[in-house]
UniProtKB/TrEMBL annotation:
Domain F-box associated beta-propeller type: 88-360
Organism encoding this protein: Escallonia herrerae
Gene3D superfamilies, per database record: 1.20.1280.50
Name the record gives this protein: F-box domain-containing protein
InterPro entries: F-box-assoc_dom_typ3, F-box-assoc_interact_dom, F-box-like_dom_sf, F-box_dom
Domain F-box: 9-42
Length: 461
């Protein structure tokens, strides 16, 4: 009688692996060459990414420690959680240039940090980080608002878009005077070496108007900026209702997007653009205590629909030097929003049905980890894990680091010991193909404490 195989078929193993978190898979790469080859296979990488994007995103909070004026640096800390009440999954911290801001993208796993003089790309899942090449035009600093960050799921690549002044001659009678705003792009592809990525100036294409540098959202493969407040005031008749500048990263063309005409009567400083679950949303502050949320449901026909009018006076901190509220996500009839005062910000939840607020997170009573450790403010993002690889040398360095930290991971019987608590919950008892008998069950599901935290838009969207 032929001897039965003592390992799982490759297709079964691949199906199990694509259900595991990236942190576990990164460690498994260091087990053996067959495992490295299997986990690096483009088919498994794609399957893992698609499964992650269809599932529930993680909640990411970024905080920054005190700015070091002498070094011109600050420490950026990232904390990842599984749902509103879910456990802390991982934390990471690194030094960044200046006091910039993280940019994220819908369905994306790579973050973009824009500092004073440099731009970083960072995948928290794999811990790979790379400093992007210097910009080609530096008449001004990088400025996080001048940089847009787009993710193209079909191509699985990221586009970093930067606006810059090619010419700006100030006139006493006109603040903006004579200007010419160019655009340059850098593309990040999976597994490509950083030396292959470079800034490329878009030829014969110029941004039509000066824009607000307020973290432009990316929707429908286009980065969106509001026309600058002061320019709107000075050139109101010229602009009419076309107050949004969009840049299509695939066609590499600038276009204008009109806003609802009713929002024009609320003043040039009343509008903010955000992206919610793949939709472009215009937040308009219609008076001192209320905001309206307009959703661009049909992007091609430029049709806006007013979904919500929210009374902010129901918030317990409304009169405490309240500044503004920015919607960050929506789920089950609840809108998650960052609220800002002159002090620390916090995360609030607005129930659409009861029209009431409840506090979720602040810096005084934050979640575990370093979310409340002497930080000035935090920012909230949704995050989807993936094995997207930045520079190949960074991946090799990361594997060597992991290998040195796991000197005795292979045990008799083909089991792998995972010492991290979150990995134990997800990867306890996994087999290494071809190294032993099937003496343990294979588990790829989430921990029992996990609960759904998807925030879909209402059905009518």
């Amino acid at each position: 009688m032929a001897k039965a195989k003592d390992h799982c078929p490759t297709d079964v193993t691949s199906d199990i692996l694509e259900r595991l978190p990236v942190k576990t898979l990164t460690r498994f790469k260091c087990v053996s060459k067959p495992w490295l080859k299997l986990i690096s296979d483009p088919f498994l990488v794609r399957s893992h990414r698609v499964r992650s994007q269809k599932g529930n995103p993680l909640q990411l909070f970024s905080t920054a420690s005190s700015y070091d004026k002498k070094k011109g640096e600050e420490r950026l800390h990232l904390s990842f959680f599984m749902g509103d009440e879910g456990p802390l999954l991982q934390e990471c911290e690194f030094t960044v240039d200046g006091t910039g801001r993280l940019l994220s993208s819908y369905l994306g796993s790579v973050l973009c940090y824009v500092g004073f003089t440099s731009i970083l790309a960072y995948n928290p899942s794999t811990r790979e980080r790379v400093t992007l090449p210097s910009v080609t035009h530096c008449l001004d600093d990088c400025n996080e608002g001048k940089v847009g960050f787009a993710y193209l799921p079909d191509e699985n690549e990221y586009k970093v878009v930067r606006l810059f002044y090619k010419r700006w001659v100030h006139h006493p009678a006109d603040f903006f005077g004579d200007y010419e705003i160019g655009c340059e792009i850098l593309t990040l592809r999976d597994g490509a070496d950083s030396s292959s990525g470079h800034w490329r100036v878009v030829p014969d294409e110029y941004c039509p108007y000066p824009v607000c540098y307020l973290y432009p959202p990316c929707v429908n493969a286009a980065v969106h900026w509001l026309v600058h407040y002061e320019y709107r005031e000075e050139h109101y008749e010229e602009l009419d209702d076309e107050m949004i500048v969009s840049f299509d990263v695939e066609a590499e063309m600038f276009k204008m997007v009109p806003v609802p005409r009713i929002c024009l009567g609320f003043g040039p400083y009343s509008m903010t653009l955000v992206a919610l679950r793949g939709f472009l949303v215009l937040v308009s502050r219609c008076n001192d205590s209320e905001i309206e949320m307009w959703v661009l449901k049909d992007y091609d026909s430029r049709c806006w629909f007013k979904e919500y009018r929210i009374d902010l006076s129901g918030m317990d901190r409304f009169n405490m030097d309240f500044e503004y509220a920015i919607p960050k996500d929506i789920r089950d009839g609840n809108i998650l929003m960052e609220t800002y005062t002159h002090g620390p910000n916090r995360l609030d939840c607005y129930n659409v049905e009861t029209k009431s607020f409840r506090k979720l997170i602040d810096l005084d009573s934050g979640r575990p980890g370093k979310l409340n450790s002497g930080c000035r403010r935090f920012h909230f993002y949704l995050y989807w894990e993936s094995l997207f690889s930045l520079p190949s040398r960074a991946c090799s360095r990361r594997c060597r680091e992991l290998e040195s930290k796991l000197p005795s991971t292979i045990l008799s019987g083909g089991l792998i010991r995972v010492q991290d608590a979150s990995d134990q919950a997800l990867a306890k008892g996994h087999l290494l193909p071809g190294t032993g008998k099937a003496t343990a069950s294979l588990r790829g599901e989430r921990p029992s404490s996990y609960k759904s935290d998807a925030w879909p838009l209402p059905a009518e969207l």
